[in-house]
## 1
Amino acid sequence: GDSVTQMEGPVTLSEEAFLTINCTYTATGYPSLFWYVQYPGEGLQLLLKATKADDKGSNKGFEATYRKETTSFHLEKGSVQVSDSAVYFCALGDYGGATNKLIFGTGTLLAVQP
Amino acid sequence: GAVVSQHPSWVICKSGTSVKIECRSLDFQATTMFWYRQFPKQSLMLMATSNEGSKATYEQGVEKDKFLINHASLTLSTLTVTSAHPEDSSFYICSARDDSGAISTDTQYFGPGTRLTVL
């Protein structure tokens, strides 16, 4: 079945460092890909998405490109801030069945130090 | 933006009792809502898909008689954990899909979650 694999955390960075969180997927068909963020004590929020190959999703300085050839959707940010500290989830939209459900990776905790 | 609320945000109950968790879409209609369970330091596991006006679709391994789902309106889905036991203690999260969006882009909006502790 479809699945998402994310790099394990925690990822600890200093402020203004470059961030990469790796995400690869296995899917039949052509899923949409998402990054969700969960700040401490809050619910998941959609960070960005891409619906087809070569699309680049971007938001709040974060970006990720849908790479069909490498089945990847790595999250990047050029300069992280303390306020970016959160758990980041990569997900794919499984539209093969009636439920059209999301399949999540295990999440990566990012801790940014001042 | 689209807002999904959950109530209560946390609940503590005795073993053997039932607990109801509500999920509401506040500013949009949602024919489809999803219920997830999140264990510490683990991903969200989809428990079931809630469909307004019809029976919920449960994922493999989820006991439908234990986790009762009712989706009585386009803005409300409820999850009832029946005869709760300590192993049911977890963080339960719902999400709702905006009916006005295209399925192919499927943006789900998540509630803040409910922490259930069964003593």
## 2
Amino acid sequence: GQQVMQIPQYQHVQEGEDFTTYCNSSTTLSNIQWYKQRPGGHPVFLIQLVKSGEVKKQKRLTFQFGEAKKNSSLHITATQTTDVGTYFCARAGSYQLTFGKGTKLSVIP
Amino acid sequence: DADVTQTPRNRITKTGKRIMLECSQTKGHDRMYWYRQDPGLGLRLIYYSFDVKDINKGEISDGYSVSRQAQAKFSLSLESAIPNQTALYFCATAAEYSNEQYFGPGTRLTVT
């Protein structure tokens, strides 16, 4: 499947700082999904973005889909220790998902 | 989600052994998936099924086989386990015409 590149691979932040992870594709995406996996847990669906330039918010989380539909970002404002985990983007096609390698977020209290 | 269960949760087996991982769901979803997760590599699709009579290979199907015994059950088999199949395995489900996937708790498999 066509890959999605996710950066950074790791991010350590002080509690209260902001965090952003980026997802990039060389080809146009029909949509992009984001999942969160807590340590020792399983991936949990956060959101799906479909429209060019779309911005969606979930409390302190802001998700964006690029105008060209080739990139997406997840921004967390004022991180908390509950935000710890790995965040994955995934491109959807033919009801299959191709996942990025994830960004592992550590929050220092 | 408790709606998707996997057994066993942990398994240690020896090289060459046959092993089956099982997934059951009560969500009533038609679509079921098997992934493996390795550190730093994300989730990679092994096999998927859109209904009981449908089986499709994913990105990394070599060395694996699956069986969709019923709408609610999807099993993954390793016919002859090898050490590089040591990984965390996840089952997932999705409703028809939906891309949102619901994951089981995972099976941690170690092949020695």
